[in-house]
Write a structure and sequence with these properties.
Length: about 180
């Protein structure tokens, strides 16, 4: 009975997730373990800019991680991902939502003309993905995701916004390693 209850809670309410890459450094380290609230958006409202979420990326995010669902210019973020979800789980931060106009300057999202204040990210480093200055508009019911480790994150800049129904839940608590235990 206890095993059934534990599996039910994991399937419906809170799911553990292990960080697979360094894309969220400095907030989350490789192999750190976090809890994800699976009910955050089905009961608690819509996703918000700044939320750290676990989701299924578009199929274009796997493999070389740079398959956009539409042709894009050299100074433009991917405006639309491929139509199929990957089976993999990613974790990133929401930086723009449905209907927002977005471009990237020095690794920071500029949303509806306002540059995000992000003192928590790793600076972008000057590569072409750091300055995608042609604005795009985020489609209805989609969210644009970026890792906090901007020079080392394959994210929506390359493979496009994610449909809301591909979001698994909101990450809210680190439980391993011991020195990282706590909410974020």
């Amino acid at each position: 009975m206890a095993i059934g209850l534990a599996l039910g809670i994991q399937a419906l309410v809170v799911k553990p997730f292990q960080i697979p890459s360094g894309s969220m450094v400095p907030l989350l380290s490789i192999n750190e373990r976090v809890l994800v609230n699976r009910l955050a958006y089905s009961v608690g409202g819509d996703p918000s800019i700044g939320d750290v979420v676990v989701f299924h990326p578009p199929n274009g995010a796997t493999g070389n991680g740079q398959d956009c669902g539409v042709d894009r210019g050299p100074r433009e973020a991917c405006e639309q991902g491929t139509s199929e979800a990957s089976e993999e789980n990613f974790i990133k931060r929401i930086v723009a939502g449905p209907g927002d106009e977005l471009y990237i300057k020095d690794g920071h999202p500029v949303v509806n003309g306002e540059m995000a204040e992000e003192d928590f990210i790793k600076p972008c480093g000057g590569g072409p993905e750091c300055n995608l200055t042609e604005p795009i508009t985020i489609p209805a019911d989609h969210y644009f995701m970026m890792g906090d480790n901007r020079p080392n994150s394959l994210d929506s800049r390359f493979w496009g916004p994610v449909p809301e129904d591909w979001i698994i839940g909101k990450a809210f608590f680190s439980y391993w390693p011991i020195d990282e235990i706590g909410p974020f």
